[in-house]
Amino acid sequence: MAAAYGISMKHLSLIVLLLQNSVLVLMMRYSRVSVDPDQPMYLASTAVFIAEIIKLCTCFIILVFKAKSITHTTYIIQKEILEQPQEILKMLVPSGLYALQNNLLYIALSNLEAATFQVTYQMKILSTAMFSVAMLNKRLTRQKWLSLCLLMVGVTLVQLQNVGSGKNSAITDTSGDGGAESEYLDAIASDHRNKTSGSLSSAFGEDEIITSQNPIVGLLAVLTSCVSSGFAGCYFERILKGSESDMWVRNLQLGISGSMFSFLAMFYDREKIYEGGILQGYSAITWMVIVNQALGGLLVAIVVKYADNILKGFATSLSIIVSGIISVYFFDFEPSIQFQLGTLVVILATFLYGRPDAPVPGFIRPRKKRQSMPPPLRYAS
């Protein structure tokens, strides 16, 4: 299909990628800082486990659609999964890292603004590039190395605003010295937060409760998630290249082992689960986050079929801008000069990394010498 509703598939792919990259981060951030006062905060470990179950069901449905028969799909699962348990063992490493990464994302967005997270999370480009060189024997051009250096500079500038601020809390303790002045400043700050976030809270029908945030914990969570994402992605790519199995069979194997790790991660919250159940604190926005996280990767894999690396880079860059604008208007985020400059550098680095390498000019490319044609043979008459 060349176009849908008058929009070309390339531009439609750009819009879908932009929405997927922006909406997931913003909804996840909102779900962690804004909850109904009558409900407890939902558990990240249960959300990750349910997302893995949704991925499993989705992969199974896609296999049924491709095989055009449930009987044939059952035969494939028996031959490729049940009779080859060693293939699932190969997936233990990436699935465990993906489970760790998904849990760290909730920790990061509980301690960082959505815009700051979006910019810092681009460090996964650096980790993926490093592991690609080490594990997949890929070679990076000077343009890509330059973009990686710019990426590190940009992320460093962005984090100057957060690490320097230390531990932030939207709810300030007014006890102690300077009681009258502190209470007055707190009242002004509280009124300002209620005005700026009122429209978003009313849209979801929930009251906003912002908990204590620690930017350093959020930064460590993002960096660890970037490293695990890069290693797991390269490991999974290496397995796919050395195997003849279908990609969706591999995703099903990955989902099985990922569900096991996510189930084990819930033991950390077993006491809270015993008290309130697995679905405690869940709301409509929570389910939207889980479904988006579960289907996001599969959606991007399908959309990239119509979009090239340039469009993908544009979508990532634009999602950073969109997250920043929405965070300013609805999450009371105040970007500093360092943050704005760092964001521009990261966007430039992302664009350069996804841009095709410039062709070698003609005067540099070696030219083959033209071979002179031998003179025609003449026969005596």
Describe the structure.
The chain is built from 15 helices and two strands. It has 381 residues and is mainly alpha-helical. It has one domain. The chain has a two-stranded antiparallel sheet with strand order 1-2. Strand 1 (3-4) and strand 2 (7-8) form a beta hairpin. Helix 1 (9-33) runs antiparallel to helix 13 (284-303).
Summarize the structure.
This protein has 381 residues and is an all-alpha fold. It has 15 helices and two strands.
- Secondary structure class reads mainly alpha
Give the C-alpha Rg.
Answer: 26 Å
Main sheet summary: 2 strands, antiparallel
Uncertain runs are: 166-211
How many β-strands, per DSSP?
A: 2
Average of pLDDT? 75
Q: What string, H for helix and E for strand, traces the elements in order?
A: EEHHHHHHHHHHHHHHH
What's the helical proportion of residues?
over 70%
What overall geometry do the principal axes of the alpha carbons give?
globular
N-to-C terminal Cα separation, in Å?
A: 67 Å
Keywords:
381 residues, mainly alpha, two-stranded antiparallel sheet, 2 strands, globular
Which helices and strands, and how do they pair?
Blueprint: E1 3-4, E2 7-8, H1 9-33, H2 44-67, H3 70-82, H4 85-90, H5 92-111, H6 114-120, H7 123-135, H8 142-163, H9 179-204, H10 215-241, H11 247-265, H12 270-276, H13 284-303, H14 309-330, H15 337-354
Antiparallel strand pairs: 1-2
Helix pairs in contact: 1-13, 1-14, 2-11, 2-13, 5-10, 5-11, 6-14, 7-10, 8-15, 14-15
